[in-house]
Amino acid sequence: LDFSKIESGNMELEQIPFDLRHCIEETLEMLAPRAREKRLDLAAEIESAVPPAIIGDAVRLRQVITNLVSNAIKFTERGSVTLVITRKGESRSQHDLRIEVRDTGIGISQQGIQQLFRPFSQADTSTTRLYGGTGLGLVICKRIVDLMGGTMGVESETGRGSTFWVELPLLKAIGDMHTQRQDLNGARVLF
To answer: Fewer Cβ atoms within 10 A, N terminus or C terminus of the chain?
Structure first.
């Protein structure tokens, strides 16, 4: 359904304030049982410069993060899955954030990477047989990220794990925007 909405241009994004850390915590709590079943370490690292409150579509952002972390868990037999969020910069009205999902899983060949963002395809045909899936999750994530004005990519090597990354411009929440200082000389101010 999401794929159809995106293809027809009918997917609309919300622009509402939300707590990014809370969004991350809820997402990882939902996925933690699957990681525990496989005895994987599941962690989040959020840089202190990342603002707690931002404006955007929390539901769609959660969908992207859920898909990336879920895939990482699926394709990792031992080791860890780590979600890393950093702030790459900011303008007057937005924060530029980078979200990475790093895993110690099976990795992807360079040829496989070229297939990842094509509808109904996976890195190779054995992936579908061994792990299941439709080959639409990453395509939907990429299109959502595109709609949000961001970019998405992957760095990987067969047998050495993968890092899926998303860079997004997200609007600053009210109170987080830098305003020009006004001269208060001679004004009465109550502290």
So the answer is: C
pTM of the full predicted structure?
A: 0.81
Residue 49's closest CA among 16, 110, 5, 97? 97
Q: Distance between CA 125 and CA 130 in Å, rounded?
A: 9
Q: Are 68 and 100 a contacting pair, CB within 8 Å? A: no
Tokens for 10, please give them: 């009918």
Nearest-angstrom CA–CA distance, 128 and 105 = 16
Enter the tokens of residue 65: 């993060």
Q: Which residues pair with 90 in a beta bridge?
A: 95
Separation of alpha carbons 188 and 21, rounded Å: 38
Separation between Cα atoms, residue 93 and residue 82, nearest integer Å: 29
- Residue-wise pLDDT tens for the chain (191 aa)? 454 555 556 668 889 999 999 999 999 999 999 999 999 999 999 999 999 899 999 999 999 999 999 999 999 999 999 999 999 999 999 999 999 999 999 998 888 888 787 765 554 554 544 444 556 789 889 999 999 999 999 999 899 999 999 999 999 988 665 443 445 566 565 54
Antiparallel, parallel or unpaired: β 16-19 and 41-46: unpaired
